[in-house]
Amino acid sequence: MLVLLPPSETKAPGGDGAPLDLAVLTAPELTDTRAEIADALVKLAGDVPAARTALGLSPTQDAEIVRNAELWTSPTRPALERYTGVLYDALDVGSMTRAQRSRATGRLAVGSALFGLVRGGDPIPAYRLSAGSALPGLPTLRALWKPVLSPVLAAVDELVVDLRSGSYAALAPVPGAVTLEVLSERPDGTRSVVSHFNKAHKGRVARLLALTTAEPADVVRLRSLLRRAGLHVEHDGGRALTLVVAAP
């Protein structure tokens, strides 16, 4: 089972790993595109006003541009430690035992505007680039990633659970992947899409899937696994699951 997570705009600083080496990252087929985007991002950092515009940053966020400028020289840390925020707080890698951590790094991967795809243990630096960003002189990120990333994901020969947000899923959709929508149900039975807590719920699901010893082979078995864990999961017969949570 491969669980695809969205990245986060916020990243943990520092690290004790060697500087970025694209050759050690998962899926070497992506190396050329990674290098092209990384070089463009470093070059863009040399023009602070242009970087602010391209990345959607304010002057108070110039430290993010400095991170990009130091992309090739700054220390790295495993991807599951680098990304932060609501989803990764719920995933809570720091509380895992060594055996659990090993299982998680093998099952979890992160969609990335800069790297395309990284496994949980891949060493990466802090950076700032979102799926919707436009880098001067380059095609859109979707145009860059889709031709090279789609074959990599299509070649995965295990169940793929795609928890990526829409903009990252659009970089390279995965045919046949199981998706998860989170709905909030009120006491009167009406439902609405969860917005604020969506990432937290997906982080908890990701943790469950990362740590289980089960190996669900299809969407039906995956639904059963989630239900046995106490989650209210519905299945309409397709490839989509719906997680229903009580309204706060």
UniProtKB/TrEMBL annotation:
GO cellular component entries: cytosol
GO BP terms, alphabetized: response to hydroperoxide
Source organism, top-level taxon: Bacteria
Pfam families: H2O2_YaaD (PF03883)
PANTHER family, alphabetized: PEROXIDE STRESS RESISTANCE PROTEIN YAAA, PEROXIDE STRESS RESPONSE PROTEIN YAAA
Name of this protein: Peroxide stress protein YaaA
Organism of this sequence: Blastococcus haudaquaticus
